[in-house]
Amino acid sequence: MSDPWSPARRLERLTELLATWRPLWHPLPFQYPRLPWSAEWSAMAEALLSLSDAEAERLQETPFIDSPLADWLPVAELEALTRLPRLSGEGEPLPERWAAHMGGRKWRQVQAFLPRVCLRQEESPLEWCAGKGHLARTLARHHGVEVAALEWDATLCSSGAALAEAQDAPVVLARQDVMAPGVERWLAPGSHACALHACGDLHRRLLERVVDAGCAVTLAPCCYQRTADAWYRPLSRLAADGMARFRLELSRDDLSMAVQETVTAPRHDRRHRQRAGAWRLGFDRLQREVRGVDDYLPVPSLAYGRMPATFEAFCRWAAARKGITLPGGIDWAGHEAWGQRRQRDVTRLELVRHLFRRPLEVWLGLDRLVFLEEAGYDAELGTFCERELTPRNLLIRGRRGGPP
Known about the structure:
Elements: H1 7-20, H2 22-25, H3 42-49, H4 53-61, H5 75-82, H6 104-113, E1 124-127, H7 134-143, E2 147-151, H8 154-166, E3 171-175, E4 191-199, H9 200-213, E5 216-222, H10 237-246, H11 252-257, H12 267-291, H13 311-321, H14 332-349, H15 351-374, E6 377-383, E7 394-400
Parallel strand pairs: 1-2, 1-4, 2-3, 4-5
Antiparallel strand pairs: 5-7, 6-7
């Protein structure tokens, strides 16, 4: 069955829906004791809060399937608008021995990504933001051609060059800040630029330079919120016009929503996240009482394994970081229990945001796709792997004057 949604039409409709429903998906439930929309949408809030633990967990993973939000929100249309094809790939399976020195998940992503790089015989491949050049080495070995790889970190360049030499892979790892002037010298009409999970401004820069050079591109974008801009600047004219018409504004925090879906973590990691979330909510209640200010106060994140052993210790750490003097006689058990109850509610209320998470990510991908089309490219947007391997599974590929 053919897709009834052209990229332009899909982009325009998603712009309208994201703008229309922004008052519901924009507020972060953990910041508000009572969400700004909870009075007007009280029946929807009650339906979410009544969900069982199992149902709430299922809807986090599959927000479009049998969603109770369908009584209030356009669930079916959002699901249709985010449904993308799996882009075709070429070639035989890659030898498993090539996985040496790559993490298992990284290797499986390279296995899925590389066959979808439709490299022509006359094109010179280039990896953008290469790290140690895992993709570049695999491209070089698979096609038997020299591959340039750009990376700004000198240590990663050195490690990548040593790996390429050890594996007899013809890769030139060049130390290059892709945001700096002069990066365009690496791109020419005969280049084919590739990037597997280049973040934010880095992949935005790639698309701008690709269009300037007129070369081919295969890109899996990631981390749209890693940008110097406080507010999103669309790449395509169509997205800019739509944002102005529907008055859609996207902050850096809004962009982070698009990449918050994660692959199911081990049970102990999930327990750790749940405990950390409950402690943060318990501290939030405590800091409001102590300061006498009923506002959310951001607390820095702690890496896994660095969380204090007890709720009290966590609160004292957080208070010290925010310059708060805690009084004596605090009911630590009461605040911790409140945080646990509050986390249960927050988990359910966040399902509204989860419903718009993939639509926002697809909208961002479409903005990039249409940007290429406006520059005269034949381009396509789809996926290159299952979300269980990586939720950041969007793939954009384009070529000026021919099929991507």
